[in-house]
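Quick one, tokens below. Sequence please?
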């Protein structure tokens, strides 16, 4: 059977610094010169990318997301919801692009477009979050607050600096959260400033870098990152020291692997899923979907085992 060379390009025109519109024709030309026939779908609001994939994705041999991490998340959600195994590629044009950075996808959109049709297709893990999905970051607390509350126009104008400025303001008012955990059968309670379920080497751009010898994107597990709530200013200083020196298994910061977990809280928690806000849930169930996404990756991708 002949290979399906029809390509579905889903583009978010407002991600990052709105560079998508200026680059779209060049990207399509790159696809055409390499034997792929693109059909362009422009998103106009939240949920559009998922809806496009669920309705039309089965007709294409490759699906490419052109936008930020949130656009990427919507596309992989559509792929999973529709039961597709169509190969997926990503052209980053967002503010921090943690997913792209982790997988060595070029920041230049033309170079990323070339990789999207010349790279090697590999299987990556995804994770279910109640009725949603994520590929590299699910967070509650500090980082989630920064991502969810930094306005798009501010990100378009200032880029990564917007997260830093907004994060400094939020850190002064962010209250600790409390939850009960069951992670792979291990049960405990914790007060935390930040909780993350991760499959990424970077978080919030360059806010922190995780150990490359621990984070793998295809090992059937995600990393659990917990920054405990300090009881006083002395503990806060100790936690900041652990964080900046990357002591990820110290007294105040923990980093360990998980395949399945449940989280219960007395209050409704606000989350960020690959940069997309998710609010109002007291009970969360997560489960790793091992090697669920067929991703077009760079040969330099160091998160593949």
């Amino acid at each position: 059977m002949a290979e399906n060379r029809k390509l579905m390009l889903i583009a978010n025109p407002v991600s990052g610094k709105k560079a998508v519109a200026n680059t779209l024709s060049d990207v399509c030309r790159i696809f055409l010169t390499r034997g792929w026939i693109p059909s362009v779908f422009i998103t106009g609001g939240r949920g559009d990318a998922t809806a496009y994939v669920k309705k039309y994705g089965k007709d294409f041999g490759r699906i490419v997301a052109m936008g930020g991490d949130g656009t990427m998340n919507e596309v992989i959600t559509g792929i999973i919801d529709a039961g597709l195994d169509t190969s997926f590629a990503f052209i980053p044009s967002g503010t921090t692009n943690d997913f792209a950075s982790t997988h060595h996808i070029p920041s230049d959109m033309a170079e990323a477009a070339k990789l999207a049709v010349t790279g090697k297709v590999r299987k990556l893990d995804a994770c279910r979050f109640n009725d949603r999905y994520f590929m590299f970051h699910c967070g509650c607390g500090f980082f989630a607050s920064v991502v969810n509350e930094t306005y798009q126009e501010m990100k378009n104008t200032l880029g990564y600096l917007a997260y830093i400025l907004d994060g400094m303001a939020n850190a002064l008012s962010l209250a600790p959260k409390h939850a009960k955990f069951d992670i792979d059968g291990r049960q405990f309670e914790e007060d935390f400033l930040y909780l993350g379920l991760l499959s990424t080497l970077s978080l919030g751009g360059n806010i922190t870098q995780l150990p490359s010898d621990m984070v793998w994107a295809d090992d059937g597990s995600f990393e659990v990152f917990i920054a405990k709530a300090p009881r006083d200013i002395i503990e806060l200083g100790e936690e900041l020291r652990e964080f900046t020196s990357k002591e990820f298994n110290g007294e105040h910061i923990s980093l360990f692997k998980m395949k399945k977990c449940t989280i219960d809280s007395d209050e409704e928690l606000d989350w960020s899923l690959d940069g997309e806000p998710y609010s109002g849930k007291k009970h969360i169930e997560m489960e790793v979907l091992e090697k669920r996404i067929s991703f077009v990756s760079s040969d330099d991708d160091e998160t593949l085992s």
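Residues 145-172 have pLDDT under 50 and may be disordered. Residues 20-33 form the longest helix (14 residues).
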